[in-house]
# Entry
Amino acid sequence: MKAGLFTPENRKWWTLAAVAVGLFMIMLDNTVVNVALPSIQKDLHSGASELEWVFNAYALTFGVLLLSGGKLADLLGRRAIFIAGLVVFTCASLWCGLAGGAASLIAARSVQGVGAAMMNPATLSIITATFPPRQRGTAIGIWAGVSALALAIGPLVGGILTQDINWSWIFFINIPVGVLGVLAARIFIDETRDTSRVQRLDLPGLVTSGVGLFALTLALIETNDHAWGSTLVLSLFAGALVALATFVLLEMHQRVPMLDLTLFRDRTFAGANTVMLLIGLAMFGVFFYNSLFLQRVLHYGAIKTGATFLPMTVLIILVAPAAGKISDRVGPRWLMGLGMAMMTGSLLLFATLDSGSSWWNILPGLLVGGFGMAITMAPTTAAAMGSVPVDKAGVGSAVINSMRQVGGSLGVAIMGALLATTVNVKPFDPRYSVQFVPGYHRALHVGAAILLAGALVAVATVRKVHHAEPHGAAEPAVGA
# Structure
């Protein structure tokens, strides 16, 4: 019986389970912190900008370093980088839980982002190297389901731990999970790497992309306290533009670039990554500010806030794996378009909420959004990964995940900037909820427009995926 569980055919599913442990942990930390923000703010005496940076320090570091993480995985071995990332993430989680001030917590969250950036591209590239094309969509569907489930269940886990124990335990729970993930990776994941040509790390690309993305997000966050036309904000926008333009020029002329821009010549790859960027822009901000709306306007407790998202969670669990399988058969294009349209509708439904809304008023938006998210994430990821050679799976995975993470960081900042146009009092001021709702509606309308644009991009650019073959020799498994 035991031998039957670990046959070569079954081993790849155990590999998927092993990477899912790490994936769940790093994606959970995108949203588990959301419902704990008021408690963190109260305990650490932090301001509004510091509160955003508790979220953004993780999301931005994660997004900025994903390309380097993917490149390192291809270069040094995907299992090795996955395990190293797990160790970094787990140690940083301990630091987060022990943080005694906002600055220490933000620093620890940044280190968490480094660990996540090492792990995340490796998870998807390990799946791509392990599963044949006929099963890859199903496996990626499960991967996307785990990812989306972690994002959706984060508020409930955060609510229970924050309300019944202490907010620090939203980080402490990562420690046993991280240890389990390292053991599972050692047992079930075979080592693979890019053997197609000589590889090296592109440090100029890392520096210029990091500086550009950091400056762009900081500029958006600073609009909460400074006018859009202020010297500080304009200087940061200008710095971001220069750094990102320099990054593109460097990558066009590097012999072994961090980001191979020729990948974007493939219409499906370019379209799928654009769609993922727009999903991040709209949906991460919604997760962040929906949690604040429920607690500060409707005065829900932390557990009730987390439980409110359960209908979305259940839909993602049930639908995302099936969406990956359907995508293998019919192609991702129309699933992506329909899913983006449904997420657009969910944001418009949320935009009807106000201080008098009940849970039943919230439910339609959760159901429509959960179904839309479930049928979008797996096909979008499968479209992108099916358009790159297997030997470039690490970089391809890093690009699609970078788009989601950077989009998410920018989305929180943009929605925060829109919210700031109507809010000019502190969160505990009685006038806060009255001022919050118009800005919240404005941010949701902008998010809906972004998602609608994503639906059009999906239908116009994405085609049925013909899985790309590796350039050169197939990747050998070089260790158990």
